[in-house]
From TrEMBL:
Cited InterPro entries: Nitroreductase (IPR029479), Nitroreductase-like (IPR000415)
Domain Nitroreductase: 8-188
Native source organism of the sequence: Spiroplasma turonicum
Cofactor annotation: FMN
Descriptive protein name: Nitroreductase
Record field: transmembrane: none
Family: Belongs to the nitroreductase family.
PANTHER family in the cross-refs: NAD(P)H NITROREDUCTASE YDGI-RELATED (PTHR43673), NITROREDUCTASE (PTHR43673:SF2)
Gene3D superfamilies listed in its UniProt record: NADH Oxidase
Keyword Flavoprotein tagged: yes
UniProtKB keywords: Flavoprotein, FMN, Oxidoreductase
Amino acid sequence: MSKVLEYLRNRRSIKNFNNKYNIENKELDILFESIRMSPTSFNMQPYKVYYIKNKEILNELHSYWWKQDSVINSSGILVWTVYKEDYLKEIYLPNQILKMVPKENSSRIEGINKGMSYIMKDRNISFEEWAIRQCYITLGCLMPVAKELGIDTCPIEGYKTSVTNEVLEKYNVIDMKKETIALACVLGKAIEEQNEHFSKNKKRLPLEDLFKII
Ligand SMILES: Cc1cc2nc3c(=O)[nH]c(=O)nc-3n(C[C@H](O)[C@H](O)[C@H](O)COP(=O)(O)O)c2cc1C
C-alpha cells in the first residue's frame, strides 16, 4: 500500500489541540518545503505563506475566525496570501516569469502570458481567484507530509477575510494594498483525549459515486 495514501486515510481535520505543543523549526522547514515543491499553474507560485504563532495575533483573530478554538489552541496557523489583481498582473507575474525564463526568450514569455490570459477568460475567473486555487494545491501536498511528521492539521476557510487582512496589516504581517488572505491551516498536536472514534470514523462517499472509468 502507498505510504502517502496511508497518511491520507489516517489523517483527520483536528479541532482539539494540545495548547502546550510547539512545532520545531526543523519540522516547519519540512512543511514549508512541501508547499514550495507543490506544482502550480505555469510554475508561478503566486502566494506567500506566513506561520503565525504569536498568541496576541491569534487571540485577536479568534473572534473573526468563527471562534474556532483550534485558532488559539493549536501550535500556530499557516496563512496563505495572494497578491491582489492589479499587483499580481502588473508586477508579480511579469517578475516571476523573468525568474523562470530568460528575457531574451520573448516567444516563451509571450506564450506564458497568452496561456494565462486564456485560462482566466475560459474559466471566467480573475487572476486573484486563479492564484487562490494554486494555494489549495499546496495545502493538499502539505497535509500528508504533516501527518508523516506526526503533526495534525485542519484546513480553515472559516474566517472573515476583510477583518483578518486588517489584523494582519496592523501587526505588519501583510500590506493590504497588495495582499489578501487566501486560505489557512492550523497545525499542532491533537489532545490525547481526542477520541479513537473521531480519528477512525472518517466519512467519504463510496468509490462508485465519485469515479467512472471510460
Ligand atoms: C478548504 C477547506 C476548508 C476547511 N475549513 C474548515 C474550517 O474552517 N473549520 C473546520 O473545523 N474544518 C474545516 N475544514 C475541514 C473539513 O471539514 C474536513 O476536511 C472534512 O470534514 C473531512 O474530514 P477529515 O479532514 O477529518 O477527513 C476544511 C477543509 C478544507 C479542505
